[in-house]
Write a structure and sequence with these properties.
By secondary structure, this protein is mainly alpha-helical. The protein has 16 helices and no strands. Helix 10 (141-155) packs antiparallel against helix 11 (159-172) and helix 11 (159-172) runs antiparallel to helix 12. It is globular.
Length: 272
């Protein structure tokens, strides 16, 4: 069905799998370049352009990735003028500063982004990086560099290597101020790798070892979500969601969690 919209979509999905699932950035890049000029849909064009930058990052070519993200941020070159496009391009460029070792420049860029796009999809992520990098003196340069190396491997879709690096980080720096973040990332990798029980174990490990972590509620939310979506164990999911209300009464998402509990209970009544 060459030349059809379905053919184009199949090509994009295939390229995306090459990058995200098989970690074959070269094959993904070649496929995306073939699709680049054929996209009439702005949203799909956006995804193709950003995926090309991600391919360069996965291949370790930070200069090419910077060129790509900078081009995307310029509407006259990319043809994309939405604020969300500018926000994502700025976020990716800040990441590149981080991965190239410019911690100060990355911190400034993330802080600026969080202030400029307060309601954006990536504002919270940018703020998180800004706060973390602001603690660089407390964390230590070597420890922070080790963590960033694991994050880079994860962004390059080298999940097995990233998982090993996070585990090594925890072995080398068990009492670091960001050890809880490493455990959180391990849980995410395991869950994305269709290992939900191991992901739950990682999140419970975070709750046990770092009870005062500001990421504890996020870990508990992810446990509840895994039971609900992946494992489809609704009674246990409800229990895990209720644990959030009990242990984290000040959590800003608690109203939404209460609604989620009600919906799950109504749609899944107990069997007599």
């Amino acid at each position: 069905y060459d030349g059809t919209g379905e053919s184009f979509e199949a090509g994009f999905q295939s390229a995306d799998l090459q990058l995200t699932h098989y970690a074959n950035a070269e094959a993904a890049l070649a496929a995306l370049r073939l699709l680049q000029s054929d996209s009439g849909d702005k949203e799909r064009k956006r995804e193709i352009l950003f995926r090309i930058g991600d391919c360069h990052l996965a291949l370790g070519n930070l200069d090419a990735a910077e060129t790509q993200y900078t081009m995307i941020s310029d509407p006259s070159q990319s043809g994309l003028s939405d604020d969300s496009v500018s926000e994502e391009a700025a976020y990716r460029l800040a990441e590149l500063l981080l991965f190239s070792g410019d911690v100060e420049g990355a911190a400034e860029s993330f802080t600026t982004l969080a202030a400029e796009y307060t309601g954006g999809d990536l504002a919270n992520d940018a703020l998180e990086w800004s706060l973390l990098l602001g603690m660089s003196g407390e964390i230590g340069a070597e420890t922070l560099a080790s963590y960033i190396e694991a994050v880079l491997l994860q962004r390059q879709y080298r999940t097995a290597a990233a998982l090993d690096r996070y585990k090594q980080f925890l072995n080398d720096h068990p009492d670091s101020p960001i050890s809880d973040m490493a455990v959180l990332d391990i849980g995410l990798i395991l869950n994305d790798g269709d290992r939900p029980h191991e992901a739950i174990a990682a999140y419970r490990d975070l709750l046990e070892k770092y009870p005062a972590s500001r990421h504890a509620v996020k870990a508990q939310e992810r446990i509840a979500h895994i039971f609900e979506v992946q494992l489809q164990d609704i009674p246990q999911a409800i229990t895990e969601y209720q644990t959030i209300l009990l242990n984290y009464p000040a959590n800003v998402h608690n109203d939404a969690i209460r609604r989620r509990i009600r919906t799950l209970a109504e749609n899944n009544p107990p069997i007599p």
